[in-house]
Amino acid sequence: MNQQLAGYAPTPIAARMENHGRSMLKVAMASGQDLFARTGSMVAYEGFIQYEPNPPAARQVASQWITGEGAPIMKCSGDGLLYLADYGADVVVMNLNNDSLSVNGTNLLAFDAHLQWGVEKVKGLAKFAGQGLWNVQISGTGWVALTSRGTPIVVDCGRGEDETYVDPDALVAWSPELKVKGKRSFKASSLIGRGSGEAYQMAFSGRGIVVVQPSEDSTDRLRIRG
């Protein structure tokens, strides 16, 4: 191999999921260890891997994705190495240990198929934005990969008594154990988020983490245009 390209070659397998650079996910596939991944995210693979678009497990909850928060998924199975990406977005790999995570569907790249998952409505926000906010909640022990538009920050909300406020368009994921409420911002609406109109923030309190990306999602999840 050309020495100038040697640094980009695949690295030895160290875990079920790991980063290959900032913007690519490498998954070690094995029989009986199926994976759910964002449809269209496969960029390369080695070995024998099969893909099933819109599997039955996804169809069961597809009707709940009425707000555009979800993303179509495919089931991946087989043996080999699978590489996934999402238009150059940063990839964040997490290993849940009998834990749970609430994820913005547009930021969900892949997760172990044996994990429990479903679409849930975030409590306490409906009065701020009509139908409210729907997220994908994943729980159990296994691997999850998220995407972030730029290097994210992970805020530990258990360090103090103060609430953590996040623009919902920049929100990637959070611990479901956190208490969530909405906050209106009138005077600062022209300074927070993109565009004009009445702006909202999500306030988190309790013990847990919040993952925030430095680039706002294009869905304007809790914003009312005026």
UniProtKB/TrEMBL annotation:
Superkingdom assignment: Bacteria
InterPro entries listed in its UniProt record: AIM24, AIM24_sf, Trp_RNA-bd_attenuator-like_dom
Family matches, as Gene3D superfamilies: Mitochondrial biogenesis AIM24
Name assigned to this protein: AIM24 family protein
Lineage, highest ranks first: Bacteria, Bacillati, Actinomycetota, Actinomycetes, Kitasatosporales
